[in-house]
Amino acid sequence: MKITDAKVFVGGPGKNYVTLKIMTDQGVYGLGDATLNNRETLPAAYLKDYLIPVLIGRDPRNSEDIWQFLYRGAYFRGGPIAMAAYGAIDMALWDIKAKLAGMPLYQLFGGKSREGALVHAHATGSDLEALTDSVAAYYEQGYKAVRVQCGIPGMPTASYGVSEKGQSNENFIADFSGIVPKEEIWDTDCYLRYMPEALARIREQFGPELKILHDVHHRLLPREAAGFAKSVESVRLFWLEDPTPAEDQNALELIRQHSTVPIALGEVFNSIWDCKQLIEKELIDFIRVAVTYAGGITHVKRIVDFAAMHHVKTGFHGAPSHSPLCMAAQAHLNAWAPNFGIQEYLTLNSAECDALFPSNHRMEQGMMYVSDEPGLGVDFDESEAARYHYKPGSHPVVRLQDGTLWNY
Questions:
Q1: Catalytic residue positions, numbered
Q2: Mean pLDDT of the region 303-311
């Protein structure tokens, strides 16, 4: 069996999904996601110009050797662009192998450990009242876990993950359109004064059963993060996400010394080497890598197994920047992983997206149920893809009140 061709598509409804389709001489094809949010043309070009030419003629069933050839064979290794491209190839090869076996992908990992996987939604509000309404809407839909982000009094602009006044709070998705980044203002003192009480109010209103998550998005210094984590212990958060910048992994030691709040981190990581220290020292409780950014199923499965040895659970990244292909790959890993924790779920649910990526995976009552169709269980309609074209965009940048650039 040989790879005969591969194509890359960029575009989609509301997002520039980067979709890879690998064809074989037996008519079986595989699909993968290489979407790198707001830098989508880079992994697409890497695939077209450098990687697809070396795939032609190879046996797609040898996914391990191909992964090693791409990663170990590169002198300059890793990074989000390369790993997203490798991730798409690896995803597509696993898709092909599972289709050849006539099995859903999770069966190739060892079968299911659970029927449904817990997901968390994103509740947001420009103020506490709006946030409460957003949480209530998800709670009524049967969600058991909700990430909460709230506007901060005294902050000149909406903080991370928060809708502006007048915007819909339910299913809020940030607008990253336009190549020139929007600028947000951050005030740590305002945040530290307000957010512990806001989280306490959410807990008081919705009771002990709701799993409450909160994302700091790398905004705090180590001492500030340690103090904040200690101040919200009584809220019993399911997790505190990205309290400090991921580059300074020693900062997590200070947080551990002062608080037992569970820590989730890693959505910006691209390899097992990025998270090795945090897992070995058990400085985190949830690892947040994504199958696309972290080099595909082959590599992420290694991270999951390594994390299990150190009591670290999965909490895969699930922002709208991941296409339904990446989300499907993670759904199969979630069904299998003995150390599964939770799955972030914030995707562009629309008739257009369903038409582009048809599948029978389903969400019910805050749980993700994986399809039993062979492979990833997601197809790709090229005629639908022809409707979409690349539209440049950029993440916001963040400044302090005095104009100093800060962490997004």
A1: 160, 217
A2: 98
